Amino acid sequence: LTSSWSYLEPGGTIDWSSKNNTCDETFQSPIDIITSEAIDKRFPPFHMEHYSTTADGARIVNNGHTVEVHLNQSPAPTLSGGGLDGIYTAVQFHFHWGSSDNYGSEHFLDGNSFPMEMHIVHYSQKYPNISEALTKKNGLAVLAIFFEVTNCNNTEFQCIIKKLPSLRNPGFPTRVYCNLLKLLPKNFDDFFRYSGSLTTPPCSESVVWTVYPKAVKISSWQINQLRTQLIRIYDGDRTVLVNNFRGLQSRNNRRIYKSII
Ligand code: SG4
Ligand code: ZN
Known about the structure:
The chain is mainly beta. 10% of the residues lie in helices and 33% in strands. Bound molecules: 3,4-di-O-acetyl-6-O-sulfamoyl-alpha-D-glucopyranose and zinc ion.
């Protein structure tokens, strides 16, 4: 499995801009969300459909950058409301994590990071597919969920952990059954909202970001499974897949909205 970019490039994720001009632009993600600077705005509640159905077509894969679950099931899970324009189809979800509990998330909250962040990627039904949607403003909607580490296993997260032994090497997708609704924080109508980009090349500035302030709990055993079981290959070297997060980007006067009910 080859890729044109890596978290292991000598200059780190900053090097991405040398090959992808968009990664240098002004509405990039992730950012540090400063609660006191966010503008209060009450968005209508989210409406999620088919998020909890057992994902019959879903496949999990180590794609060399993250562990990713593709939701090929029908009917497809969809997202609307929450201030989004129209209906968005969920395509996949994936994770970003660190090598210790002190870092790993992409977004920060008031200067603090979390050990892990999950992204659920959706594209607008106005467009025929995700590749076209990522060239359009608001073409994508990503839900970002922070995780914090406790002593208790998160039983909903076991659907991922159970599969890790078969995902050691990049490639080789396998079936997975997760309940997406139960992986979300309990109150998913409290969130931050801003316009940004994909956090990996091509860094397209097409994403409506929803960031939940309330972290979901997983155990230190579970996050250590993620930190030790997956391999990535860079420049011929095989190393464990950790620290797959992009550095913070400038806010550049963008408005951050806070919808807290
Ligand atoms: C991860 O590398 C995913 O595996 C990518 O998904 C994803 O790209 C990329 O992150 C950027 O998404 O929510 N972090 S993010 O901004 O969804 C896309 C695939 O490569 C386009 C399928
Ligand atoms: Zn992501």
